[in-house]
Specification:
Helix content is about 0%, strand content about 50%. It has strands at about 5, 10-15, 20-25, 30-40, 45-50, 55-60, 65-70, 75-80, 90-100, 115, 120-125. The strands form two sheets. Strands 2, 4, 5, 6, 9, 10 and 11 form a seven-stranded mixed beta sheet that branches.
């Protein structure tokens, strides 16, 4: 059974960097999409970045140029390297997975996750 195990959250000052990791355990599917979502208090969950099994990568406009998503197929880990962090980036970050998407490419706008991690908190202070 697929499991998503996240790590790397913490507190950082504005302008700092942080790296989140998600261990993708039991990925036996040929077609999939992996993504990072986030949710802050009082706001709805939003997609941040995604990569699919065809290696298509997409980002939310608010993080483009600052965040980098990578998937290591050998280690089966999904990372999110975050730089130039802002207070607006403060949120709970979730790893998400969709198996057998209707189409490849699947993007951050079209992913329909089947599985979610428990989340890791990122706090950016002035």
């Amino acid at each position: 059974q697929l499991q998503l195990v996240e790590s790397g959250g913490g507190s950082v000052q504005t302008g700092g960097s942080l790296r989140l990791s998600c261990a993708v355990i039991g990925n036996e599917f040929s077609h999939f999409c992996l993504a990072w979502f986030r949710q802050s208090p009082g706001k709805e969950r939003e997609g941040v970045a995604a990569v699919d099994s065809g290696a298509t990568i997409t980002y939310a406009e608010s993080v483009k140029g600052r965040f980098t998503i990578t998937y290591d197929k050998n280690k089966n880990t999904l990372d999110l390297q975050m730089t130039g962090l802002k207070s607006e980036d403060t949120a709970m970050y979730y790893c998400a997975y969709e198996k057998w998407p209707v189409r490849i490419p699947t993007t951050i706008a079209t992913i329909r996750p089947n599985h979610w991690g428990q989340g890791t908190q990122v706090t950016v202070s002035p």
